[in-house]
């Protein structure tokens, strides 16, 4: 055979060989582990489009191995004689076989037979790597390699790297489990690998969220990440603005790379086919044929996949075959379609919109209709399918589409005006709804059913503005004029009536009507109002004191809410769950819910309620600095955003409690001037605002005004069975009676509030009152007047207060005890006979209201040992019983500056 010395050396060396020794490649640990099983398979096939790291991966693996050969192909290797020479050289490199007597005579299969005979004498395991096999188009080489694989010795492993699947009877090998495969999805960088990559390349650390966004956008494509790193080296701030980053990427590096690596090698006609198809987010044969007018579309899509041109199949259960382009390639192709095929752009999107409609995909049809200069197509789609999209929760898509219409089309159509108003209403932008209704002027009277629909909407607006009487009237009139066939309008009207009843405090009637809305909405597939009815039912149950039932209902609804894309309502659901968790003193869970609600909202103004919940959590924890920061954030939002009475009452409550905890009485005069007392506290937000004003009067040292308000709202709450608000009012009235030194009345209210807690499981409402509540609960525990369930609640509340207020209560750590003993006013007996560390702990727990049994559980010490500690510490501090020990401890704390 011709000497192998004349071969080009670089074709027998990995192009990445030197790089594997550098620190600039991420080690693909999981894939390398998978490749360690390579010796169990005759063939290993690594397929992916350009730039996915095939060569880098196998080079990393090769560096760990001995006895490997490398053959890098190019177009010239389609010559069978050249292929035979380099193939042989790579074999020699791998196993050291002798080749002097081999003779190639224009038959590659025959020559491979000679090689196989030679290899029978080799007993060393070895591997041969063939890189860039997609360059081979010569059928003789394919046939010879198929022959080789059938007869390959057990000591050899053949590894092929290619952009497309080679015609080497791969399916047969796969069936017989003789094939190890690594594909594009496996080669794609994970988020952690992308993070490591950027840290190595840029010597900088980025947030998980930023890395996640970049990795998702390029779908783990290694070259895409590499090109991004070039841009970030020039301007690292672009990582905060992914849209600008990818725009710059598309403008410069991507086009050059794709033209050099892909489009330089493919037929221009095939590129145009790709450009036309790329306007679609996903493609099947029907769509491709309709858009390109090419009857061979299915064959071409299949060919693109086989050639590894960044197109992949999408898992789908409808029996049809779907593809999608890689997002980076899709973006490039779409841009080039606009530039290179400008006369076709409008036609392509028109065809796409019509074809998507035929297939039943309205969202996709709207997307393409928005690309067309003539808005008539978009107008027709919205007329026919707008409401179904609304019921599916596609609020953002609808709003964008309606804003895309010219005014002369938008405002002449009452159906679209109603749709626009409900889209805005569903995102809690109440003021805009009124603006839309004012802007809609019609020269001729509306048809009766349209009048009914607008009345139902105006009823909702009246609710937004707090006028439940007008809302009830408008919705009731609407029901009389809306025919039965207009089911959605009737659902809206009944929903408004139910909500008005809720505002009036008629909870039972409201619940019946909301259940009716739920049933109607589900049967009509109007999921938007189905979800709204469920949330309203949860609020009614909470007001009635059935918090566990409310939480269970919300929990059942969570999965469906996520699938409906109802972003504002999804936040509402999470917030309701968080509020219940706050009441139950599950503060970590409440915080998680509030943060989850914030994450799904885009506008700062919309986050007010969740921020308020976070502030309440901070108040209960005693973290006043964080509470102050959050309150200021809420105040900023509410100053720029018209809010519902419920929202303002919630924020007012947090502010007043914050003033109470910080003992800042200077704020109340100006605060009270701005607030008006609700005429009748018939619902949770008017009850809350009435309590806010009562609390402010109490903190102003005006207990009689506070009692007058509380008397009225308790009467209303009892009449309407607003159990949760009864409990909250009792807790506040308890504070007023304590302020007036009416201890018996205070104790009566507290015991009643604890009894109600057996139903509601309220904890934080007690805990937030802090020291004054803890002292009262200690007294109740000492006089033993609580039933068993109330006793357990009281003990849990006390422990929760102690947990968040250890600086106020007896937490005698080593540092505190040392300072205490250094105080010249400390009792002499305590210096002469100091307590042990354990005795200090026991004294602190006695002061905090713990029983002997609870102290035993807290310190994990036997009851007999606890009794010994108590006896010893009583003797050392000179007291006879628990009450004296508590008073003694209180005096020590006062001595140290705690009041």
TrEMBL record:
GO terms for biological process: positive regulation of carbohydrate metabolic process; positive regulation of DNA-templated transcription. Gene3D superfamilies: P-loop containing nucleotide triphosphate hydrolases, Tetratricopeptide repeat domain, Winged helix-like DNA-binding domain superfamily/Winged helix DNA-binding domain. One of its GO terms (molecular function) is DNA binding. ATP binds at residues 48-55. Residues 828-893 form the HTH luxR-type domain. Activated by ATP and maltotriose, which are both required for DNA binding. InterPro entries: AAA_22, P-loop_NTPase, Sig_transdc_resp-reg_C-effctor, TPR-like_helical_dom_sf, TPR_MalT, Tscrpt_reg_HTH_MalT, Tscrpt_reg_LuxR_C, WH-like_DNA-bd_sf. Monomer in solution. Oligomerizes to an active state in the presence of the positive effectors ATP and maltotriose. This is HTH-type transcriptional regulator MalT.
């Amino acid at each position: 055979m011709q000497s192998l010395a004349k071969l080009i050396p670089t074709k027998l060396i990995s192009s990445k060989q030197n790089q594997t020794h550098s620190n600039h490649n991420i080690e693909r640990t999981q894939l390398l582990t998978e490749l360690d099983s390579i010796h169990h398979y005759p063939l290993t096939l690594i397929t992916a489009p350009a730039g996915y790291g095939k060569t880098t991966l196998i080079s990393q693996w090769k560096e760990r191995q001995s006895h490997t050969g490398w053959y890098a192909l190019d177009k010239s290797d389609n010559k069978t004689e050249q292929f035979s020479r380099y193939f042989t050289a790579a074999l020699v490199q791998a196993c050291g076989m002798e080749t002097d007597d081999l003779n190639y005579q224009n038959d590659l299969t025959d020559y491979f037979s000679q090689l196989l005979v030679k290899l029978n004498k080799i007993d060393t395991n070895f591997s041969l790597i063939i890189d860039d096999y997609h360059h081979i188009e010569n059928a003789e080489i394919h046939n010879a390699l198929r022959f080789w694989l059938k007869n390959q010795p057990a000591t050899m492993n053949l590894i092929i790297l290619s952009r497309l699947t080679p015609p080497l009877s791969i399916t047969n090998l796969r069936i017989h489990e003789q094939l190890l495969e690594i594909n594009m999805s496996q080669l794609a960088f994970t988020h952690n690998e992308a993070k490591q990559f950027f840290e190595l390349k840029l010597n900088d650390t980025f947030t998980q969220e930023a890395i996640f966004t970049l990795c998702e956008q390029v779908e783990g494509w290694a070259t895409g990440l590499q090109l991004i790193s070039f841009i970030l080296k020039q301007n690292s701030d672009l990582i905060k603005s992914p849209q600008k980053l990818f725009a710059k990427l598309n403008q410069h590096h991507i086009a050059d790379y794709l033209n050099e690596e892909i489009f330089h090698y493919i037929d221009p006609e095939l590129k145009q086919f790709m450009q036309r198809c790329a306007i679609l987010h996903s493609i099947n044969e029907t769509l491709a044929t309709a858009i390109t007018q090419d009857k061979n579309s299915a064959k071409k899509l299949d060919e693109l996949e086989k050639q590894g041109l960044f197109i992949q199949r999408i898992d789908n259960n409808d029996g049809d075959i779907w593809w999608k382009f890689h997002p980076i390639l899709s973006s490039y192709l779409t841009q080039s379609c606009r530039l290179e095929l400008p006369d076709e752009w409008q036609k392509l999107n028109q065809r796409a919109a019509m074809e998507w409609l035929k297939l039943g995909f309205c969202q996709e049809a709207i997307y393409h209709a928005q690309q067309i200069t003539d808005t008539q197509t978009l107008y027709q789609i919205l007329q026919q399918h707008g409401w179904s999209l609304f019921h599916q929760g596609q609020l953002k898509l609808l709003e964008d589409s309606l804003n895309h219409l010219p005014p002369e089309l938008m405002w002449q159509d009452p159906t679209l005006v109603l749709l626009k108003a409900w889209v805005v209403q569903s995102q809690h932008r109440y003021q805009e709804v009124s603006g839309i209704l004012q802007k809609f002027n019609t020269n001729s009277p509306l048809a009766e059913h349209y009048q009914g629909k607008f009345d139902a909407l105006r009823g909702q607006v009246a609710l937004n503005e707090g006028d439940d009487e007008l809302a009830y009237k408008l919705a009731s009139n609407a029901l009389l004029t809306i025919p039965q066939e207009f089911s959605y309008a009737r659902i809206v009207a009944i929903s408004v009536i139910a909500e008005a009843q809720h505002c009036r405090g008629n909870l039972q009637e409201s619940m019946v009507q909301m259940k009716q809305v739920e049933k109607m909405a589900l049967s009509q597939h109007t999921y938007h109002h189905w979800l709204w009815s469920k949330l309203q039912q949860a609020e009614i149950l909470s007001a009635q004191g059935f918090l566990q039932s409310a939480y269970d209902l919300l929990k059942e609804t969570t999965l469906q809410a996520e699938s409906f894309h109802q972003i504002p309502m999804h936040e509402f659901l999470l917030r309701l769950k968080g509020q219940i968790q706050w009441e139950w003193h599950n503060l970590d869970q409440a915080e998680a819910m509030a943060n989850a609600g914030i994450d799904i909202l885009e506008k700062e103004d919309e986050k007010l309620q969740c921020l308020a919940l976070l502030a309440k959590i901070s108040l209960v924890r005693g973290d006043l600095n964080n509470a102050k920061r959050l309150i200021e954030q809420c105040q900023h939002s509410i100053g720029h955003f018209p809010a519902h009475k419920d929202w303002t009452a919630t924020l007012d409550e947090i502010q007043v409690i914050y003033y109470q905890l910080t003992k800042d009485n200077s704020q109340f005069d100006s605060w009270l001037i701005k607030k008006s007392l609700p005429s009748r506290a018939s619902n949770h937000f008017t009850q809350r605002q009435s309590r806010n004003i009562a609390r402010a009067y109490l903190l102003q040292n005006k207990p009689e005004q506070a009692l007058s308000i509380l008397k009225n709202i308790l009467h209303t709450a009892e009449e309407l069975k607003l159990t949760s608000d009864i409990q909250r009012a009792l807790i506040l009235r308890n504070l007023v009676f304590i302020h007036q030194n009416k201890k018996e009345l205070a104790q009566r209210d507290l015991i009643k509030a604890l009894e109600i807690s057996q139903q509601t499981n309220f904890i934080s409402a007690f805990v937030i009152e802090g020291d004054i509540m803890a002292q009262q609960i200690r007294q109740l525990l000492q006089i033993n007047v609580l039933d068993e369930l109330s006793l357990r609640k009281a003990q849990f509340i006390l422990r929760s207060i102690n947990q968040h207020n250890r600086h106020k209560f007896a937490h005698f750590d080593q540092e505190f005890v040392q300072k205490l003993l250094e105080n010249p006013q400390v009792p002499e007996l305590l210096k002469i006979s100091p307590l042990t560390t354990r005795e200090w702990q026991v004294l602190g727990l006695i002061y905090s209201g713990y029983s002997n049994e609870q102290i035993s559980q807290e310190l994990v010490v036997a009851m007999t040992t606890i009794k010994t500690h108590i006896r010893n510490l009583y003797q050392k501090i000179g007291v006879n019983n628990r009450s004296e020990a508590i008073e003694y401890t209180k005096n020590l704390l006062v001595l140290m500056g705690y009041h």
